[in-house]
Fold:
Amino acid sequence: MIGAHLPALQVVVPLLAAPLMVLVRRGGFAWLLATAVSWVSLAIAITLALRVYESGTISYPIGNWPPPWGIEYRVDAVNAYVLVLIGLVASIVAPYARLSVAAEVPRDQHYLLYTMYSLCLAGLLGMAITGDAFNLFVFLEIASLSTYVLIALGRNRRALLAAYQYLVLGTIGATFYVVGVGLLYLTTGTLNLADMVVRLREVQEIRPVLAALAFVTVGMGLKLALFPLHFWLPNAYAFAPSAIAALLAATATKVAIYVLLRFYFTIFGPSLVFERLPMAEILIALSVAAVVIASLVAVFQRDLKRMFAYSSVAQIGYITLGMGLVNEPGLTGAVAHLFNHGLTKGALFLLLGGVALRLGGTNIDRVAGLARRMPLTSFGIVLAGLSLIGTPGSAGFISKWYLVVGAVERGNWWLAILIVASSLIAVAYVWRFVEMAYLRAPQAGAAERIEAPAAMLLPAWIMVAGCIYFGLDTSFSAGGARAAAEALLGGLR
Amino acid sequence: MNVAGHYSYWVTIFLMVAGLYIVIARGNLVKKLIGLGIFQTSVYLLYIAPGKLIGGTAPVLADSFKIYSNPLPHVLILTAIVVGVATLALGLALVVRIREAYDSIEEDEILEKDRGEEDPR
Amino acid sequence: MRPESALLAALAIPVLGSLGIAACRRHPDLRETVTMASAVALFLSVLSLVGPVLDGARPEVSLFQVLPGIGFAFRVEPLGMLFSLVASGLWIVNSLYSIGYMRGNREQHQTRFYVCFALALACTMGVAFSANLLTLFIAYEGLTLITYPLVTHHGDDEARRGGRTYLALLLGTSILLLLPAIATTWTAAGTLDFTDGGILGGRLSDAATGALLALYMFGIGKAALMPVHRWLPAAMVAPTPVSALLHAVAVVKAGVFAVVKVMVYVFGVEQIADLKSVDWLPFVSGFTLIAASIVALRSDNLKRRLAYSTVSQLSYVIFAAALLTPLSVIGAALHIAAHALGKITLFFAAGAIYTAAHKTQVSQLDGIGRRMPWTMGAFVVGAVSMIGLPPTAGFASKWFILSGAMAAGQWVSVAVIAASTLLNAGYFLPIVYRAFFRAAAGEGHGEAPASMVVALTLTAAATIGMFFYADVPLGLARAVVGG
Structure:
C-alpha cells in the first residue's frame, strides 16, 4: 500500500520533518530527525531505483490528478541514479554533522541548521524526482533558499557575504530557468515534461524554443557552476560549515547537472541541441576551459577547502565535457562522474571538516606534519585525492575511462589527451597536501596526536571506502550510469 | 514584425534588463536586491500577459461565457511571487547580518575590510 | 595446492603480510619475522605454479568486473611466471638484507618501510599475473604510488625533490600516454585481454599502429626509455634495499615486462614484424642503451652509476623484443631474470659499502676490496654478469639476443650490442680495479652486518647458478614465443 506512494514520500518525508524541527526547537532532536530522514530517503531512493531497473519508468500522479494536468513524479533510470546519490550523501553527512556543527555553529542555531538541512534535502530530491517543469522551479528555490541560509551559518563573517553573493547569482539563475520554462509553456501549452517532449516535436516556429534553450542553459549553468558562471562556488564551499560544504559539493551542483541533462537530451532532444545548434562545441569549449583553468587556479590556493572548491569547478567541467561528447561512453562517463565525484568530494570535505575542527582552519601551512598528528584523516585525504586524480582502482578512474573512450570514439584525439593531461594538474594540487602533511615536520610545539573524533572519521571513511569500492566494482556506479545514458540518448520511450 | 502588438513583451524585456543592470552596476547590497526584485517581476509579466484574453473571464463553465482566460499562469506566478518574497526577505536578512558584521552595506568597503584575511574557518 | 589457489595465494600473501607487519609494529623482531615468513610463503606459492605452467597450464582467476567486458582478472603465462619467480625469490634475500641495512643505519619509520615493501610486492605480483591491460594498469599505478613513500623515506628536501621527479614522470607518462593507449586499444579491438598472437590483428592502419606503439613504449615509463628515464636516478634517494629490489628488480622489470607483454600479447610479434612504422623502436632503445652507458661512465656516485646502468640494461630488453625475432624475444625474457640477479647483487654491495664505510662515491673506493672481500667479490660477479661474460647469467641472455640479431641479419644491432658491452666493461672494471689494486686510505673498517653479506653472497651465487642451471628460466622463456 505504502509502496505505491514512495515517489511522493521521497519528498514529503524531509519536507514534513522541517516544520517539526522548528516546533520542537531542540538541536539534538533535530539532528536525530535529520539523520533518520536522510536514511529513510536513501531507503526510498534505493527501492525506487531497484524498481526502475526491474520494471521500467515509474509515473506517480500527485493527488491523483492525471498528467499532464496534474503534477507528475516520474522516476526513470536517470533520476533514480541521482536520487540514490543524494540519499547516500545525505545519510553519510547527517551523522557526521553533529560534532562538526556543534563546534562551528552557535548552539541556539542548531535546530535551524537541521531544519534547513531537511528542506535542502527535500528540494534536491524534489528537483530530481519531479516530472513538471514549474514544480522543478519551486523545488529549486526550496533547495536554493535553504542553501543560502546554511552557508550563512558558517562561523566566519565572510560566510555572510558568500551567502549573499550566492543568493543573487542563484536567484538570477533560477529566474533564467523560469523564463525558459515560460517560453516553453507559451509554445507548447504544457508544463509536464513528458507531455512537453511530444508537443515540442510538432512545433513549427522554433525561435522561442531556441530562446528557451538559451535561458535554461544559462540558468542551470549558474546553478551547476558551469565555467565561467562559477564565481559563487569557491566562497560558498570554503565558508559554509564543513558538513554543509560536503553536502553541497556532493549533491547541489549534481542535481543542477541532472536538470540540464534532462532538458538537453529528453526535452529539447539531441538533434535540436547538438545538430542544429553548436551546443556540443560550446559545451566542450567551456568544459575544457573549466578543467584547465580551474585546476590551475586550484594549484595556487592557500586554503585547502578553497583548493578543493576550485577543483570542483574543474570536475564539473569533466561532467559537462561528457555531455558535450554526445555518445554513449561520454554520457556514461558524465553520469558516472556525478556519482563518483560526489563521493570523492564529499569524502574530502568531510575529512577537511575534521582538520578544521582540530586545527582551527584548513590553510595549507597549518597542515604541516599532519600525517603524524591525524594519520587517518591524512591518509583518507590522500586516497580521496587519488580518486580525484583518477588513478586506476579508484572511482574517479572509472568516469575518466569512459570520458577518454568517448573522446576517442568521437575521433577527438586532442580531447582525450586533454582529459588525461588535466588529471596531472590534479596531481599537482593533491600532492601539495601530500608533501605538506607527510614530508614536513609539524610546527613547533604541535606534535601531539589530535585525530578527529570517531563519529566524524567513520562517516568520512565510509565515503573514502566508497571511492575505492566503486573503482573496482562498478556494477552500480557505471552500470546505472550506462542505463541512464541509454535512457537519455533513447529519449523518453 | 508587429512591434506595438508585442508591447507587453517589450515591457518585460525592459524590466528584465533594467533589473539585471541594477544588480550588476550597484555596489549597495540593498539596491542590488531591489534590482533582483525588478528582474523577478519581469518574469511575472512574461507568464501572466499571454494568459489574458481581452474580454475573457475566469474559467467558470456557464452558458453566458464563451471566452476564458487561462488561469494556470496566474496560479504559477502566485507561487513565483511567494518565492520572490522569500528570496527578498532572506536577502534583506543577510544584509542586516552583514551590516552587523562589517558595519557597511557597500560591497567595495566590505571587500576592502576582508582583504588580507585569507584563512576561512 | 591447485594452481588457481596458488595464484590467489600469491596475490594475497603480501597484502596479508603487510597487515601482519603493521600489527606487529611494536615488536621489531616479530615484525621482521612476519616479513620473512611472507616472503618465503610467497615464493613457495609462486614456485608451485612453475610445474603446471611449464606443462602448458594457464591457471586464471577473475575477481570482479571493473568495466563491462573488462574484469579484474589474473592469468599465469610463462613470462609473468618468470618475472614473479625472480621478484618473489629475491624478496626473501632482500628482506634479509633490509633487516641488516635498516638496523645498521638506524633508519626511521621502519614499520612503514616494511608495510610499503610488502604492498609493493603485491602490486608486482599483480603486474606479473595480470590477465588484461586494465588489471596491469591498476597494478602498475599501484606500484608507483606505493613505492613513493619508500623513495621519500628520509623525508628531507632531497627526498622530496626525488619524489617529485619520480611521481611526475611515472604518473605523468602513465596517465598521459598509457591510459589513452589502452583506451584506443579498447576502442579498436573491443577487448583488453592478453591473447597469444595479439588482439589488434590489423584493425589499425600501419601509421596508427606505429603511433600506438609509441604511446605504449613511452607511456610505460617504468621501462625507462629515454627521455623518460629521469625518474630512476631520482629514485636513488631511497634507502638501498629499495633501490635494490624495487629499482633494479620489481619496478623497472614491471616496466619492461609490460613492454614485452604488450608487444607479444597485444600487438603480436608476427603481426607487426613487417610494419615500417615500428622500425623506430630499435633505434630509440639502442640510443638509450648507449647513451645511458655513457652517462654511467661519467657518474662518480656509485648508486647513480648503477641506476644509469639499469636504464641501459632495461633498454637491452626492449631492444631485444623490438628485434621481433623469436630468439631475441627469448633473450629479452631471459635478460629480465639475468639482469635482476646481477643488478640486485651490485646494489646490495653498494648498500653494504655505505653501511660499513659510509662511502657513496666511486672515487672513494680505493682498496675497499681487501677490507670487504665478500662484498667486493660479489660485486665482481655482478659486474661480470652485466658485461655478459661467462660463467654468469648475463652471458646466456646476451647470447640469445645476439643470435636473434644475427639471424635477422641486423648488423647494426649487433654493433650496438658489441659497443654497449665495451661500455659496460668501461664503467665496471675501473671500480673493480680500484677496489682490489689500489692502496686503501683512511680508517679501517670490516664487512657490513652479516645478514647483508649473506644476502649479497646468495644473489651472487644465483647469478652464477643461472648460467649452469638455466632449464627453468629457459623453458619459460621459450614458452613465451610458443616453442
